[in-house]
Structures are given as structure tokens and as C-alpha cells.
Write a structure and sequence with these properties.
The protein is mostly helical. The protein is built from three helices and no strands. The protein has one domain.
Length: about 90
């Protein structure tokens, strides 16, 4: 498979490989696609959770949110680089 990058992305990929962040352009693309897939799965899960919460709210089964607890949970899900922990 051949992937064509836009002119603005090619230097970025070259820099990340030159910096040693990724061993090859292929590795960067694999990492990016893996993260994109994970974001899609999380988005779909979040949409389902939101729909369930809407249905519960419509039935009068809602409770106040604990914003601080939600923020802590989100922070705990990320590693030191801001990527989701696996």
C-alpha cells in the first residue's frame, strides 16, 4: 500500500523520524491510525453513554455531575504524553 501525504504533512513526518520519535514513516502512520481507531471507539462509546443518560433523564432518573471526579478520571486515562493509556 502506498500512502500519499499532503505537502504540509511530509515535513512533519520527516521531522518526527529524524528526531527519533518514530523509527520510520510507517511506524508514525501505524501509531496515528491506531490512535484514530481508538478515538472512534471512544467516541462511539461516549455517544452510547450520552444516549443512555438522555433516556434516563427523560425518565426522571438523573443525578448531579461531579465535575472534579470526571476531570480526575480523564486525567488518569492519559499517560505523560497525553495519550490514552492502554
Amino acid at each position: 500500500m502506498t500512502i500519499l501525504l499532503t505537502p504540509d504533512l511530509e515535513p512533519y513526518v520527516d521531522e518526527r523520524v529524524a528526531d527519533g520519535v518514530f523509527p520510520s514513516p510507517d511506524a508514525l502512520v501505524r501509531e496515528a491510525l491506531g490512535l484514530y481507531r481508538e478515538l472512534e471507539l471512544r467516541r462511539d462509546s461516549l455517544k452510547a453513554d450520552i444516549q443512555a443518560a438522555i433516556e434516563q433523564s427523560d425518565q426522571g432518573m438523573s443525578a448531579p455531575l461531579d465535575i472534579e471526579a470526571i476531570q480526575r478520571e480523564l486525567v488518569d486515562e492519559l499517560d505523560e504524553r497525553g495519550r490514552p493509556k492502554h
